[in-house]
Every structure is written in C-alpha cells, then in structure tokens.
Design a protein that fits this description.
The complex is a heterodimer of chains A (187) and B (104). Chain A has 187 residues and is mainly alpha-helical. Chain A contains eight helices and no strands. Helix content of chain A is 73%, strand content 0%. Chain A is extended. Chain A starts with a helix and ends with a helix. Chain B is mostly helical. Chain B has a single domain (5-91), classed as Helix Hairpins (Orthogonal Bundle). Helix content of chain B is 74%, strand content 0%. In chain B, helix 1 runs antiparallel to helix 2 (29-53) and helix 2 (29-53) packs antiparallel against helix 3. Classes of the chains: A mainly alpha (187), B mainly alpha (104).
Chain lengths: 187, 104
Amino acid sequence: MLDALSQIPPSFLVFLPIAAFTVAGAMGVAFSRNIVYSAFSLLAAFVGMVGLFAFLSADFLAVVQLMVYVGGILVLILFAVMLTSRISETKNSNPLHNLVVGGLTLLALLSVLGIAVVKFAWPTRTAPPFSPTSEVIGDAFLGPYLLPFEVAGILLLAAMLAAVVVARKEIKEDDEPASDASQGGTP
Amino acid sequence: MNVGLPHFLIISVILFALGFFTVLTRRNAVGILMGVELIINAANLNFVAFARYGALQNVLAGHVIPVFGIMIAAAEAAVGLAIVLSIYQNWKSIDTATTTSLRE
C-alpha cells in the first residue's frame, strides 16, 4: 500500500483528492433525486473548485470563488430551495426526466470532448513557481480592463435592482379601495 | 509526469458535461440554475488552467476574465432566482413542465 502510494508523483497526491471531491459534488448535483441534496452537493463542487484554483496558483480567484459562490450564490440557491419546494415532499422534489436524451448527451460530450482534450497536443510550458496574483489583477482592473470593470459594476447594480423589482410581491391597485371601504363600514 | 494542462481540462469537461446533463434532465427550475452554475465553473477552470500551463503571451487575461465570469454568474443567479420566486408566487410550482405561460 505505502509502496504503491510512493510510486505516485506527489502533485497527484494533492490533485486527485481535490479533483475527486469536485467531480463527486458535480455528480451529486446531476444525479440526486432530492433538491436539498443537490444544493449541498453544489457546495462540495464549489469548495473543490476553490482547491483547484489554489492548485493553479490563482489565490485571488480562490478567495473570490469562496466568497461569491459559497457565501453568496449558494446561500441564494438554498433560500430558493427552501422557499419553493415543500420540505416534507422532498422525495420527489427534483425528478429526472428525458433520461435517455440526457444520458446520451452526457456520454457524447464526455467522449468527444475527452478524446479531443487527450489527443490534441496542447502547446504548454512548465508551470512557473507559485506567486501572488492579486497585485497584478488589481493593476489590470485599473489599467487595460478599466472599461469592462466599470461595465461589470453597472451590470451588478442593474441585476440587484432587477432582482428586487422582479421578486417583490405585486400590490394590486384595486386592493386599496376595498380595504378603505371595509374600514369605513365598521362603526 | 506531473499534473498538467490535460488533467484540468478533463475535470473541466466532466463538470461541463454534468452541468449540461443537469440542465437537460431537471424539471425543477432551481435545479436547472444549479446546472448553469456548474457550466460557468467549468469555463472559469479552463481559463485559469490555460493561464498557468498554456504557452500564451497574455497570462494575465486568464486570471482577469474568470473574475468577470464570477460576476456574471452572481448577476445571473440573483435575477434567475428572483424570476423563479416570482413564478412560484403565481403558479405555486416551479416545475418547468407545467409553467408553460408567462401570464396567469
């Protein structure tokens, strides 16, 4: 057992568990019959992505992934799950349909893209040593990427306002006279 | 042999395929949004993997564009879940097979 472990290059000893964790989370999202289990599997997939980003020397992205996905998007999704599905009926809250079409598409995508990835001779380089990236990313945002950065800020503002406007309860205009009349009717 | 570009691309392919499968097979609208999140994550992983292992001139773009991807994903999740909640208020259901019209 230990001999077999020592045969594996050390980078794989770190990479394989993280990758397996991520893929297991994604498989939970895809195959779980219970929407709550799917949501928590998505948490595993996002946390695994944090590990993969850290492995790729993308420290800033790893922290952003943790804060935005795990801290923001996942909480939103959990809120939506809790608000929309009756928890007592979670047995069939997340039915799978079109299994044949979905399964065939899954196999086709995996085989075609997998073969393309393995067969193609990607022009690679030896990975540089780990180095912090937040400084250069900050410079890039205030330099060559300034316009996209500002547009993204406007997009986030618009999305925030849109979410509030779309999700609010609609107040029907004919409700008000009715309540006035009922108040007036009581002595 | 060390961990290299193809390994990360394979992980990305698996995430994308599972996300696509989720979008195709779910009837729960929240489940479909989870599949979209998986697809966006797969794309971001590709950008960062090429930034580290790919023979590119502009390495920085591989770290900057995923930040925009995460921003888009956040905006998409906020608006998408707001629409889902709004549909639920009207229809008392978020099954995409039954909610076939945008008005009552």
